[in-house]
């Protein structure tokens, strides 16, 4: 295999490439980025690898979530706080149901680059480049906004740093109300759409959770603080390799290279070609790495990806995030899981129930149905249970805001509601109540998992 360097990806064919007009401007930005401090540290990255290795053994569960497309404009205290809160609340529900610790990872502080199905967008007869995320261009439909601007990489770096700074400060005690489920917005329980036995079960769960947290509080604040400390693990799709490689470096006393823009970068469904630039870049970094796998992946291809990205089969290194769609998961997932097991390859299986379930309404609005999303999660648990493997995590596009982007859930969002508060810059997200309700369903399913010895 040829020698790897942070820029060896440039010798390989690349998909979803960004056409920057001025190479000098790009080079200046990359140089500036490479001189700035890292956003995360190698020891945090190594810590996450250890946690993921324990998740592979069935001892932990991963909850990964956040915006589809993070936006510079939404780098605001209320939005960041609400997003951290919903992830934290969901994780407490999952810990309660699943009887194992949850690793919380945000799609935050860098989820700024978007692969698109079409390179251009047409509105009213005018054709402009598509919006590729704030790392590349801007969402407004004007030629200036849609021009790929390398300086946005610096703006995103700065906003990622500010986001992370706030998230890290919040971790230390900024969430007192989260310890008390009686302060959560559980109004979805009361909706007539929730059958009474489920409502009773949810109420009981909430009561028990509240009692457990209060008991721990009585034992000493430190214990609750530990349980509810918002780990500041971040993740994003490592799509724009100029940005990723500019922050990829060696650190004293450790071997190898770290992509220090984030703890857990992942390769998207559209850029996982075995001979492509993204595989080349990702094979050389020490970070744990995610790979999205849609229904078109062949079992052989999945094994090859594991061999390329983790040749030494190290624990905690590889996270396979399957997104088959509720309709396909029962057929498409088992051969992939079996092939990996047959090849003796270690991966953490995670279900992304969002990206295989996107549909357009008759008026052309992208949405997802709560039921489809839930069905894919439940079917994934069933498949893994049947095969004797472990579904070790879930991956959601969600927000802590009261948006109307996905239909369904006990809050009963309909197609007509979508226009009321459709705020996403790319894909539809679960809103606060839908996300919390989803966690109760998952916790219910997780209560059937075998108990694990304490860590
Ligand atoms: O987030 C995933 C992709 O970027 C997104 O689904 C692509 O959306 P598009 O089909 O509107 O381009
Ligand atoms: C682009 C994404 O997903 P996928 O690569 O699975 O389509 C995403 O997670 O936003
Ligand atoms: Mn998305």
From TrEMBL:
Keyword Transferase: yes
Keyword Protein transport: no
Reactions listed under catalytic activity: D-erythrose 4-phosphate + phosphoenolpyruvate + H2O = 7-phospho-2-dehydro-3-deoxy-D-arabino-heptonate + phosphate
UniProt pathway annotation: Metabolic intermediate biosynthesis; chorismate biosynthesis; chorismate from D-erythrose 4-phosphate and phosphoenolpyruvate: step 1/7
Keyword terms: Amino-acid biosynthesis, Aromatic amino acid biosynthesis, Cadmium, Cobalt, Manganese, Transferase
Family that this chain belongs to: Belongs to the class-II DAHP synthase family.
Protein name per UniProt: Phospho-2-dehydro-3-deoxyheptonate aldolase
Organism per entry: Melittangium boletus DSM 14713
